[in-house]
Amino acid sequence: MFRRKLIWQLYPSFLATTLLALIAATTYSSYTLRTFYLDQLKEELRLVGDVAASQVALTLRTGTSADVDALCKTLGQAGSGQMRLTVIASDGKVLGDSDENPALMEDHSNRAEIIEAIADGLGRSMRFSPTLGRNMMYVAVPVSEDGQPVAFVRMAVPVTEIERALSRVYVTIIWAGAIVAVCAAVLSLLISRQISEPITRMKRIAQLFAQGQLDMRVPDAGAAELDELARALNEMATQLQDRILTITRQRNEVKAILSSLGEGVLAVDSRGRIVSVNKAAAQLLGIDPIAAQGRSIEEVVRNVGLQQFVRRTLEGDQPAEGDISFPEEGGRFFHVHGAPLADPPTDRAGAVIVLSDMTRIHRLESLRRDFVANVSHELKTPVTSIQGFVEALLDGRPDDPEQTSRYLGIIAKHAERLNAIIDDLLSLSRLEEGAEKRAILFEDVKLRPALEAAVELAGVRAEQKRIRVELSCDDSIRAKINAPLLEQAIVNLVDNAVKYSDEGTTVWIEVQPQDKGVAIRVKDTGCGIPREHLARIFERFYVVDKSRSRKLGGTGLGLAIVKHIIGVHGGHIGVESIPGKGSTFTLHLPQ
Length: 591
Known about the structure:
The chain is of the alpha+beta class.
């Protein structure tokens, strides 16, 4: 909708008021001036009429109508030449006229000035004279005898000169009015601008306030009301600036707190549309926090459990808790806590959902259960065997040395396996305890001596299967290591390579410098590991072929020990394997 500026509302009003006043003053002045001139002329004609009436009365008493006509012509010639004198009898008959023959003139009893003179003793009228062809003013004075009018003396003068004089005055008044109107228009514009300019300036500064420039201030306008408005605007800007700074500081504090939280925080409105998502929630749910704004939870998170929990929290009046799983994302688990948000006008503003990632704890719990089950299973086999053969010895014949020797050999074998399992478990425990307490010492030494020691320790089993162990390591390669632990890791890898390789094959140990550390590769050409087992072979007691592992004396803890040893060195382990062609284990040590 089009709206005019304030100056174009004030200016036309001021100008119209001034012009109306000027027109009214001009009209009144013109009317008053014209009335003054006509009244003055009427008074002059009345005076002349009174003088002429005394002479006409004398003539009527002593003379005839011809004498009256002669008197009229004499008085008319004695005047200014513009005045016409007419004597009219009481019955309307013209007795004499200064310009015309009275015998040819019609009855004048119906003339307005005659009628008015009969009624009021003096008559006046203005009209167009057909005889003379111009506007005339007529003034009639009665001629009385014994208190009764016997005739009327009528004076007539043209008003052309008066009209001309008035026209000149009117032109002067119009020019003066035009000059006054122009001055009034300019003055009205200046006054309107003076009034509107401070308001326009306040509007511009108020727009800057709306744009956030609250440090601007409205100057004084000079008028008391506008100064009060300016002070009110400045006070409003100051309060707004303080409140915005407070809100911004509080928002930044809340944002910083939410961003630093490890838990994911998700806020939704009463319709289930996302209002806010912190960084942790965006990472946990794998969503874009900016793109998620204003969208429903069903559009953003494709998980029925979380969707139902949000709806339940919005519909309830009390905080809610629950556990949600994301099986499609590799088996992730969350503990969620929801609380409804109250808004006094609507009594329902939305809800806040807090997500705690329990995946690691859940997996650790699962590993703990598996570990307990595996330890129980691994320990139960040798213990049961030992117990069984001990009972057999106790119940058997002690005079049969061959059977006793065989039973004792089996017991010794299972005791050795039991001891190996306990040693490996103690090694893992010491590694974890040392990593936590930082009790393991590391030295920057050459790698080759430690690797040669490992090859020598693993050489006995390799020689039994006629397997060669070849070491390729430059003497200059150094690393910050704990030599005994690294030797143990290499021995375990070489021992596994020897166990699962055929006789007469070769196991290679290669050391290669890298940009950020050193890579130690242990490569064999054995049976290999199926792809589906590669992700779990470093778990405790996890073995690909349990029957073969027990037959070869494995405990299922060797690779777990290797992984922990490389972990305390700050590195990591990787594996590549092709079934039937062999495996390559790579230890990455940091520089």
